[in-house]
Design goal:
The protein contains 2 helices and 15 strands. The protein is mainly β. The chain has 2 domains: 85 residues, Roll (SH3 type barrels), CATH 2.30.30; 51 residues, SH3 type barrels (Roll). The strands form 3 sheets. Strands 1, 10, 11, 12, 13, 14 and 15 form a 7-stranded mixed β-sheet that branches. The longest helix has 8 residues.
Length: 148
């Protein structure tokens, strides 16, 4: 299992293994509504022209590059949530953190994830708290909801 932080991957160049073409740079992480795993990477464009690559098409994470199996796997998405990700309205980084009792715990400063599976491992808040991924309940445009 290889652990990575989202902040360390943002801005990294995405390259196709098949042809060594630069596809773009990592702009956002499309995290599942449950908030438990990264489903896709937003790598370029906005609105209807946003380019994503599915997690299953990722080959590996290097120190400054993300490798995808084929350049052709990157493409536009018609998923509504992907559009929200590309616009920045559903972004785990910077999201408010609220617990199910209604208390606020700052904002998401960084997220650690498994580079093989895309599973979220932990959340670090602006207040310095570390929240285990098992406590995450959901991610929406308003907040990341966690158990107290």
């Amino acid at each position: 299992m290889s652990s990575h932080s989202m902040n360390s991957v943002l801005g990294n160049t995405v390259v196709g293994v098949d042809d060594a073409n630069d596809i773009g740079q990592v702009k956002h992480f499309a995290v599942s509504p449950r908030g438990d795993r990264v489903e896709r990477l937003h790598i370029d464009g906005r609105g209807k022209h946003a380019i994503f690559v599915d997690w299953d098409d990722l080959e590996s994470f290097g120190t400054d590059r993300v490798m995808v199996t084929k350049s052709s796997t990157a493409g536009e998405s018609d998923e509504q949530r992907d559009g929200e990700v590309a616009r920045g309205s559903v972004d785990i980084l910077g999201s408010r953190v609220l617990d199910t009792a209604g208390f606020e715990h700052g904002t998401v400063a960084d997220v650690d994830f498994d580079g093989d599976s895309g599973e979220i491992q932990s959340i670090r808040t602006s207040g310095g708290d570390a929240i285990d991924a098992a406590k995450v309940r959901s991610l929406g445009s308003y907040a990341l909801v966690v158990d107290p």
